[in-house]
Amino acid sequence: MKKNKPINILCTGAGGASGHSMLRSLQGSNLNIKLFGGDMYEYPSFLSLNGIRFFNLPSAFSNPYIFKKKLLNLCIMNKIDVVICSPEPEVLIMSKLIKKWKREFSIEVITTYPETAKIGVNKYELYKKLNQKKGLNIMPMMPVFSKEDLNSWSFGFPCVLKPFDGVSARGVHYINNKKELELVYKYLKKYLGYNKVLIQKMIVGPIKNIFTVGALFWKGKLINAGIHHKLRTSPTTGGSSVVAVTYKPDHLFQYGLDILNASGKWHGFVAAEFKVSEIDRKPYLLEINPRLWGFSYLMTMAGVNYPELLIRLIMGEKILNYNERGKKILNYKIGKKMIRSLDLMDI
């Protein structure tokens, strides 16, 4: 990238909370940049942000080849320097193109590496990776490929039935007995089309026991991280944050970092979500999101602009990583609260 030339940045999945937060944070920075947004929906919520050019993209899940082809053509035609990916299907696809696009087209693709992208999207792969490691408090989990497999579940109720790779609480159901388990499994497979589902022991506790540690990594090194506390979600039983507040970096923050460090080599944005059990008061992992977390703009409001930090790293600026700073995080305001706007919610 040439000095004094604006950096052209394209954020995919811009109609969702992650992409919207990315664009808002970058708009609020003092970087010399030009912003573009891409989304599979024609009228995404981020259009309310002025000065951003919008592109309609095909679904990376339904049409991966067409998605890659159109995205590359748009990047070349508009001289895009940086592509930042948000939706999980796009993360999986683009993680395999980081080196190729950099080498052949001088385009910086920001997503994590293929190995960590895989475990971030596939909940069972993540479970297998972390289950044998001490001190990470992973609830028992079992894959279900047929109705007969349900008879092998030996960890009792309540439990959770969910897809291998679902997002935003889609397909997640809370089960209280064996009859419910059989009925919901039939519903997931026959009516929602999930052929592979997971059953996991439920972490007992209210929504207010859920926390998220969001982080920025650069080639495996932790640059910075923060923690926020969920207060309300959509749906109300658990899912995307509606109201959250920044939280103090205590033992829960360290637990989130331990999860991320144990799960692999990360690059770009990633977030670990976990819940404190009402039974033993220990934190237990819920999931890892291999992208910018949807409530990241809360950290921008609290004083740490993660997307801006990322672009400064790409520009070659020296930003001390977590270890170089003596394992200190960049200061953010604790107790800062944000309410997510309705135009970003799935209704």
Topology diagram in text:
Layout: E1 7-12, H1 17-27, E2 33-39, E3 53-56, H2 64-77, E4 82-84, H3 88-94, H4 98-105, E5 108-110, H5 114-121, H6 123-130, E6 141-144, E7 159-163, E8 173-175, H7 178-190, E9 197-201, E10 210-218, E11 221-234, E12 240-246, H8 251-263, E13 268-276, E14 283-289, H9 297-302, H10 306-314, E15 337-339
Parallel strand pairs: 1-2, 1-4, 2-3, 4-5
Antiparallel strand pairs: 6-9, 7-8, 7-9, 10-11, 10-13, 11-12, 12-15, 13-14
Helix pairs in contact: 3-5, 5-6
Could you give the count of β-strands?
Answer: 15
Helix content: 25-40%
What is the CATH architecture assignment of the largest domain?
2-Layer Sandwich
* Helix/strand structural class: alpha/beta
The top level CATH class name of the largest domain: Alpha Beta
Tally of discrete structural domains: 3
Main sheet specs = 6 strands, antiparallel
